[in-house]
Amino acid sequence: MLAMNYRGPFRVRAEDKPVPEIQHPQDAILQVTRACICGSDLHLYHGMVPDTRVGTTFGHEFIGVVQEVGHSVRNLKIGDRVLVPFNIACGQCVFCKQGLYSCCHESNAMSTAIGGVFGYSHIAGGFDGGQAEYVRVPYANIGPTVIPEGIDEEDALMLTDVLPTGYQAAEMGGIKIGDTVVVFGAGPIGITAARCAWLFGAGRVIVIDHLEYRLEFARKYASCEAYNFKSMDDPVLFLKRITDFLGADVCIDAVGSDACGNMMQTITGKKLKLQAGSATALHWAINAVKKGGIVSIVGVYGPTDNLVPIGNVVNKGVTIRAGQTSVKRLLPKLIEHVQNRVLRPKDIITHRFALEDVAEAYHIFSAKLDECIKPVLIPHP
Ligand code: NAD
Ligand code: ZN
């Protein structure tokens, strides 16, 4: 089968690989119909995630058709069209039972730090992902969800990560009626978080990025204010000025680690003197939030990124909430929102590529070319 194959930092290819097989009675094999590239894949692509092995297939956002099931799979049958949460979760462990599917203790038993994730290096279990014609899905009674009536395939695709993550970012912010919410990052996650902030009763939503086309997209998609940090001397002071010098009630970090080469050039171009592995957006979030406010972190950081200004957190009494999204916990509510047209997550898809063009797709998304917001790979266009 054709599959995305990691060859090293900034080098990916579409290559031939063996079709995956059932390895466990609870496995299913899917024929992938659509898969996304996520900002989280860019951390892998940039070589910033430890133990990302050459030959791995990325892809944790995918939908497909069930081809084969192990003999303990009861909830799926061949031919079902399913969406699959990006977390691999057993559904039985102490964490899954609390709805903390991203912390599953069984799917990545070698780690106490992170549960299993499709296509996310050996730190997340070493599972191959869905940027391929076929994918093996472990614990198939738990994750895969039959795409409900009235949900378009590409909306379903956005339910595997982007929409739940944007929603969880807003939820972790503990937004109260009338709150001012600042979202750092106008990528797929940031603009979705901004859109979802209104559902929790925000009175004002502000997005910060440095890419004009994304700011413009955020204004339209999330009906928010959006500002370019490159045009500010000091983004924190700017945000204080427009919030009566109090700061925001809630700040959301939808950026993550500064490890991206492309982004670093821009930032060093502004002489902000930052190093790879630092956390610019998170610093801004902590410094721009009100005393007693909440900082919600969905941006992904690596083990060495530990540059949080903890003194400011303590002195201001800031609450920090963070996490990989527990997709399955949020699916029932979000499926309803999509069915009722409260949310239209597929509207952020700007690019569709055949799977064989995966190298070009990664390049365009990573370098933020061609006004790309969210790219989708199609194995059989
Ligand atoms: P993306 O790369 O498309 O978007 C990131 C955006 O941040 C870009 O538009 C970039 O210009 C902007 N940016 C860079 N530095 C900034 C700064 N200092 N201030 C404001 N904006 C800045 O990625 P994405 O798909 O939107 O993902 C965003 C983050 O969310 C990534 O770190 C990704 O790994 C993470 N993520 C987390 C989860 C989770 O479960 N917690 C799930 C999906 C994605
Ligand atoms: Zn993702």
Automatic annotation (TrEMBL):
Needed co-factor(s): Zn(2+)
Residues in Alcohol dehydrogenase-like N-terminal domain copies: 25-143
Domain of life: Bacteria
Pfam families assigned: ADH_N, ADH_zinc_N
Keywords: Metal-binding, Oxidoreductase, Zinc
Domain Alcohol dehydrogenase-like C-terminal: 188-265
Keyword Zinc in annotation: yes
GO molecular function terms attached to this record: oxidoreductase activity; zinc ion binding
Listed InterPro entries: ADH-like_C, ADH-like_N, ADH_Zn_CS, GroES-like_sf, NAD(P)-bd_dom_sf
Entry-linked SUPFAM superfamilies: GroES-like, NAD(P)-binding Rossmann-fold domains
Family: Belongs to the zinc-containing alcohol dehydrogenase family.
Name of the molecule in the record: Glutathione-dependent formaldehyde dehydrogenase
Species name: Sphingobacterium haloxyli
